[in-house]
Amino acid sequence: MPIQNSPYDAFSKLLSASGHSCSPAELHGVLLGRSCTGVGFDADNWLADAAEVLETEPVDNVRNALIGLQEMVKGELTGDDIAVVLLLPSDDAPLAERAAALGEWCKGFLTGFGVNSGGLELSTDAQEVLQDLAAISQVQDALEESEDGEGDYMEVMEYLRVAPLLLFTETKKSAEPAAIKPSLH
């Protein structure tokens, strides 16, 4: 029975066929990271950030995939879900490959958040989330192909599914009061 082509594998093939060496996990991380700073969901701004990560302007099929990915993320962050779906290799991929992608996702998230978060004042909780992501991006090599390694991976993945929502909710709150203050003149 053939293995189902996961969204991750399909996106990975699309990127490599278009000459991009970046992983789908890193791109998804950048997208979620930037989205969690409150920059909004303007497709052109996202495509500009993506072009920097890809190191070239994305071709049409990659552009369309990136816009689709953004629509999915927008739906997750602004909807009623309490977790986001991470773009990572499927569970039947070797743990080392999944762990490496998790690290790439974290690095991407930190890049997307860092590039767009100028002037944001973050709570202690939000700062701890970013520190956790930085730590996770460093430890992917420590996960071993074992039941414990598998358990650790699942635990980290579950954490990463809710961490962006905490940051998104916080940055949304800090942006709201400014938007509704009456002008003084």
TrEMBL record:
Signal peptide location: none
Listed GO CC annotations: cytosol
Pfam family, one: UPF0149
Domain of life: Bacteria
PANTHER family: UPF0149 PROTEIN YGFB
The family this protein is said to belong to: Belongs to the UPF0149 family.
Name of the molecule in the record: UPF0149 family protein
Organism listed in the record: Pseudomonas gessardii
